[in-house]
Write a structure and sequence with these properties.
Elements lengths: L2 H12 L1 H4 L4 H9 L4 E7 L5 E8 L4 E6 L1 H11 L4 E5 L1 H11 L7 E11 L13 E2 L2 H15 L11 E7 L5 E11 L2 E9 L8 H12 L3 E7 L4 H7 L3 E10 L1
Parallel strand pairs: 3-4, 9-10
Antiparallel strand pairs: 1-2, 2-3, 4-11, 5-10, 5-11, 6-7, 7-8, 8-9
Length: about 250
C-alpha cells in the first residue's frame, strides 16, 4: 500500500460518523504533516483501522477515538504524561467509570461539538466592513489584545489560517475571528472575540454573518458545556452534533 493510500485510509476512518467533527484536529494534523504530531493505530481482524491515537508532543496533548480497549491501554500507561482532549463518549465513559473516584484527581470537562454549513446561509442586512489581515498586522493586534484585555490569540499558521477583523471609526480593531483550514471547505473556528467595550452591540455577530454571506464552507468548534456562549453560537447558525470530554490528572 502506498503512503498516500495509507493516509487516505486513515482520514477515511476518522471521517466516519457524522462527518468527522470530533476528529477534526486529528485530520488537520495528518494532512498538514505537523512535525509536532505523531500517532498510533490499531487494526481489526480484517486489517482495517479500528482505533486511532494522536499525540502532540510540544503540548503534551492526546486525542483518542475508536477501539475502547486499545484507547484505555494507552490512557492507563500515559495518563500522568499527557492531557487528553476530544475523547468520544465510549472511551470517556470507561475512563470516568475507572478513575472518577476520591483516590484520583481526575479533572474532566465536557464539550459541545458544534458545526455549521454556510452554503445555505443568506443574510441581506448583515454586510459589514471587514478586512483580512497579514501576519505582521496580526502580531500587533495580538499584542494589543494581550496588553489591553489579557486575551491570548491562537498561534498564527501561515498556510492554513485566515484572520479577519472589523474596526471602529477610529481604526481600532473591535472584533476578530480566525478560520483554520482542515481540508477542502472544512474549517475550525479557532478564535472569535470582540473587545469588551463593544460586547453586546452585535459587532462580532455582524462580522461573522458578513463572512458567511461570502464564503461557502463547513465550520466546526468545541465549546465547554457550561459556557453560556453556546446559546450565541446556536443563534448565529451552529448546531450541536456531538459531545466530547477532556481529562487531566
Amino acid at each position: 500500500m502506498s503512503v498516500k493510500m495509507f493516509y487516505d485510509n486513515m482520514v477515511s476512518y476518522l471521517r466516519k460518523n457524522n462527518g468527522c467533527w470530533e476528529n477534526v484536529y486529528l485530520i488537520s494534523s495528518l494532512l498538514q504533516n505537523d512535525d509536532n504530531f505523531h500517532y498510533r493505530y490499531s487494526l481489526d481482524d480484517d486489517d482495517n483501522i479500528d482505533g486511532f491515537i494522536g499525540m502532540w508532543e510540544d503540548e503534551k496533548a492526546v486525542t483518542m477515538t475508536g477501539n475502547v480497549d486499545y484507547c484505555m491501554d494507552f490512557y492507563e500507561s500515559n495518563k500522568d504524561k499527557y492531557t487528553f482532549y476530544d475523547i468520544n463518549e465510549n472511551v470517556s465513559s470507561k475512563i470516568m467509570g475507572k478513575y472518577s473516584n476520591k483516590d484520583t484527581n481526575l479533572k474532566s470537562t465536557k464539550y459541545h461539538v458544534m458545526n455549521m454549513d454556510s452554503s445555505g446561509f443568506s443574510c441581506d442586512v448583515c454586510d459589514s466592513d471587514y478586512e483580512a489581515i497579514s501576519r505582521d498586522s496580526w502580531e500587533s493586534i495580538r499584542d494589543e489584545y494581550l496588553n489591553k484585555h489579557n486575551i491570548k490569540f491562537t498561534s498564527y499558521c501561515d498556510d492554513k489560517m485566515e484572520w479577519y477583523v472589523s474596526r471602529n471609526e477610529n481604526g481600532e480593531v473591535v472584533s476578530n475571528l480566525c478560520f483554520e483550514k482542515v481540508m477542502d471547505d472544512m474549517y475550525i473556528l479557532t478564535n472569535f472575540y470582540s473587545s469588551p467595550e463593544v460586547k453586546g452591540h452585535g459587532i462580532g455577530r455582524k462580522l461573522f454573518k458578513s463572512l458567511m454571506n461570502q464564503h461557502d464552507r463547513k465550520l466546526v468548534l468545541f465549546v465547554k458545556k457550561d459556557n453560556p456562549i453556546v446559546d450565541f453560537y446556536e443563534e448565529i447558525g451552529f448546531n450541536r452534533v456531538a459531545s466530547t470530554w477532556s481529562f487531566d490528572i
